[in-house]
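Researcher: Can you fold this with iron/sulfur cluster in place?
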Amino acid sequence: MSFDGPANAIPTPPLRRLVLVLGDQLWLDNPALVGLDRQRDAVLMIESDGEARAVWNHKARIALFLSAMRHFAVALRARGWPVLYERLAFDSPPLKFQEQLARRLRALRPQTLEYCEPGDWAMAQDLQNTAQALGVRAVVHPDPHFLCSIGQFAQWARGRRELRMEFFYRDMRRRHRVLLEPDGQPTGGHWNFDADNRAGYPRSGPGPIPEPTRFAPDAITLEVFDLIQRRYTGHPGRLERFAWPVTRAQALVALQDFAQHRLPGFGRHQDAMWTTAPLGWHSLLSAALNLHLLDPREVVAAAAEAWRAGRVPLADAEGFIRQILGWREFIRGVYWLDMPALAHANFFGHDRPLPDWYWTGDTQMACMRAVIGQTLDLGYAHHIQRLMVTGQFALLAGIAPPAVCDWYLAVYVDAVDWVERPNTTGMALYANGGRFTSKPYIASGQYIRRMSNYCDGCRYRPQARSGDDACPVTVLFWNFLIRHERWLVRQPRTAPMARHVTRLSHAERLDTGEQAQRLLDNLDRL
Ligand code: FAD
Ligand code: SF4
């Protein structure tokens, strides 16, 4: 496949419709493409230096977006559609997306600028403003990729004091008739088999886990690599192990491969972590889903079908379906409900800068070294690694939420604002005050020891709360409990956490506080 194949002629301006396809809207069923007329309309796709630099992006994240966009442009051109594609070159001027769009609008003078609703709140504002400033009517098409529209979620949330994913998920199961009996009851008698899905690996290790299909970079991807190595040299991360699906055909292969080989072990070890198994039994489908290369309906159907065919236990199929039909849709709903306030949420008023080693993995804490190390290698860490290792450390250390959000947005190939921000702000940092979580997700180093082999190679001891080898996670966990004891004791879900602290003597509290302060004063050297 070549990106430099024949381009179809762009109609002479003024155009009737200019259809903008954003970098995470790479599917042919994009509603803005419906009714495209080759004689009067054109498609516009923009690679933007401003987007690549908005945060200090991992090289693999830039590569995935640019490669998938270029492959999609080839697919559009193959349909005979006129596609104007602004390609970044080594020496392209460092323009912002809106500037590039404005230039095109001035040159093409379309009657309407049409696009599917962006996933990103700020992008939605920018598009409206740019079109308005140039007197072009913006036509925004609702995004049918999701199983729950923004309006449906707002309706579900209306009047609820607390937003809880579990209730939303049950509604979604009923509404979409997924794993549902004719009488409306959940298949297997339970909505949720999470209790079966929390096991760590045995101490002997995870044993053999089928490797996911790797997609070797083709000529288009290699050209993107070359651009990145020259233009974004100093950016974090590596490209050597880049093997992500960049086309719909590849994404479908990845889905089938997961459903057949790793879904059967997905649920039980979902939360487990191990240095030699960075991917675990996980699907690695988030990036393909977020780029719209995969439709969540087909992903849910593949898991349900694997269970129906007897290839996968119900707990695994349900556990996986809950992530897609439940968490993914719920998180998007919360994002659109709570933006832009979500971007400023800082419940605990945390303001410390992010330690530099978040960008290098150069720390003595073996858990952080392992998770950040694999993140830099692959652009990937699974949910519990993000939540209970890098995320909870940022919470316990009092790092400013915007700095943490920028890091998560930069370093994961699947990162897009609408998923990353609620997960980071709401779930990992509790910065929105428990809007959709009933308590902060925190635990001592003992939890990490139970769920991984990280502590085996660590200079610290997970059970130690004082002394030179005290585990920073454990110390900061206890320090958090002590500092927030009065608040914790007031909520039913957090009161049990506070009870641990009540048992501490005055001297123990003092000692933990001092130990924590020493760590916090030396965060960059941990
Ligand atoms: P699997 O474990 O195989 O899960 C299957 C699918 O379920 C995922 O592909 C994903 O589409 C969906 N899913 C699971 N959990 C969530 C969740 N909490 N929110 C939304 N969807 C979910 N996910 C992103 O796609 N982009 C992000 O930028 C992102 N940032 C995160 C930041 C933090 C701090 C945390 C705690 C989680 C974040 N997640 C994000 C959610 C989750 O960690 C990833 O979706 C998951 O690790 C991707 O790997 P996978 O495809 O192998 O997932
Ligand atoms: Fe992490 Fe503490 Fe275990 Fe070290 S001892 S790996 S810092 S949890």
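Model: Folded with iron/sulfur cluster in place. Residues 365-367, 445, 448-449, 454-455, 458, 460-462, 471-473 surround iron/sulfur cluster (ligand 2) (CB under 6 Å).
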